[in-house]
Every structure is written in structure tokens, then in C-alpha cells.
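QUALITY CONTROL LOG
STEP: pairwise intake check
CHECKER ROLE: data steward
CRITERIA: each record must contain a sequence immediately followed by its C-alpha cells, with no blank fields

ENTRY 1 OF 2
RESULT FIELD BELOW
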Amino acid sequence: VCPVNPPVCVFVMLVLVCGDVAARAFGGGGIYGGIQISEYVLYVIAFFGAPKLLRLGGHIRIDLVVSQLPPGVARIVSAVGDAVCFVVTSLLTYYGINVTVQSYKSGTLIYQSLIFPEWITFWPIPLATACLSIEFLLRLLQVREPSRERSAIPL
């Protein structure tokens, strides 16, 4: 469901930072705006990595209590957790869209190395939280066994 590939973003950031360092080392002025772009790429990685991790079951899940419950009850508890997460990420999507649209309408600019509209920095939030909402909805529709997911922190 995620439209952005975080590993590709990491590669772009690697090229920008290494290129900037190499350009400075060989007497150039570096890549204009390279560090600023890398900062925003890092932000995109964080937001778009979350839906991918959720889909793969690689997110942090502390299931100390759920793992001790009978399978039927554990499924219900997991479904309730997914429902709460669906509601929260849907609200974040809604507010993220509002903030992005307001910024677009206001025409606010960011002045750093590069000058560009502020809304460009906001669009990843509603898009990534919409992807998370879809992932949580898919989890709700499947209601997977909690034991089938990998736990990032085995307890």
C-alpha cells in the first residue's frame, strides 16, 4: 500500500551525503541543498517505513499479556488494538490533509538553502498515515492470529 520505497530513499540520502562530502573534500562547495534534502528524506523514511513494517510484522509489538490469553481472546484483543490504531491513524490523516491544504492555500515558503512551499514538507504525513490506516483496516478484515506475527522484542 505504501507508495514510497524507504530503501530507495536511504540510497538517495547516501548519494547526497557522500556526494556532498566528496565535493567538499575535493575543493568544491558541496551539493547545494544536499544536507537539507537529506533531512527531508530522513523524515520521509520514518513516515513511509511504518506502513511497510506493519505489513511485514516488523513493528514493535509487546505482547506479554496477549500471548498468555486463549487464542480466541487474543484475536479479539488484537482486533481491538488494530481498531484503535485505525481510528487514530485515520484522524491523523484527516488533520494532516487539513494542515497540508491550509499551508498550500496560504502559500507559505520555507527559506533555507532551498526555497520551496511549506506544504511540500507536510504531504508525507497524511499520505503515510493513510497507508497505515489501510494496513490496520486490512489487519482488521483478516483478524490474523497474534502468534503468527514476529515480535520485534521477544519477552
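ENTRY 2 OF 2
RESULT FIELD BELOW
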Amino acid sequence: APSHCCQARLSEHRLMIPRALRRMPVRRADRGFTLIEVLVALAIFGIVALTLLTSSRDQTRQAAAIEDRLLAHWIALNTLTDLQASNEYLDIGTTDTTAVMAGRDWFITIAVSSTPSPAVRHLDISVAPYDPIVSKPGNDLVTEVGFLRQRGASQ
């Protein structure tokens, strides 16, 4: 049997182990994040999210503007084709009309001018978005240039 002195040392040694463990430094990975670290991460995330949202909004606006110009171009080409296919020979001057395409209203301005040949007219067809409630066209999105030949005229 161990002596009383040895037993005291053993029990002292057993008591010291928990104290030693309590004094051991805790690893940083076990502690988690500090409040400052979390706030900095949130600030960075917020800035990145705001930048992405702004970029996305700008791209959506650009896509809508491209769609508007494309539809206006189609309307101008359709108008020119309709005029060229018809027997109508327009007088010199300006004519305004409206059209609906893709569920939207459009304002069409046809400016007719003379050319050196009396049997040919020069056409400038401008297309703008149109608000029928206030009867007001927007800014021209596209202007298509074309020519109209009088049917039956000698060349």
C-alpha cells in the first residue's frame, strides 16, 4: 500500500489535472467569431449585394430599351413594306398614325419628300412609343429611310 505521503501526492496530482485543463488556452476555432468579425462580414456582404442588384437593374433597363428599339424598327419596316405593296402614292408632307404591336401603342410619323424623279418619293418613317391616354408620343426610337415608286410610272 502506498504511504500516506504518496497518496497525498496522487490526490494532489488528480486535482491538478482539471486545473491544468482549465488553464489551457482555448483554440480560436473553438471560440467562434467575434461581434466585430460578424459586422465586417455583414458589411462586405451588403456592399456586394447592393452592387449586384444595381448591375442587375441596369441590365434589365438596357434589355427593355433594346426591345423597344427592335419593336420600333419592325413597325417602321412593316409600314414601309405596306406602303410599297399598296397602290397608294403619298403626297409630299407629313402623316401621323398609330399602331399596336406586342400589346403596346406606337406613334408613326411618315415624312414624304420629293426626289429628282417625279415618280419616286423619299420616306422617313419615325416610330415612338405612344400613350393613348394623354395622346402624346414619346421620343423617336428609330427612323427608317425608304423610297416609294408610283405604280404604273415609267422608269
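INTAKE CHECK: passed for both entries
DESCRIPTIVE NOTE, ENTRY 2: The chain has a mean pLDDT of 85.
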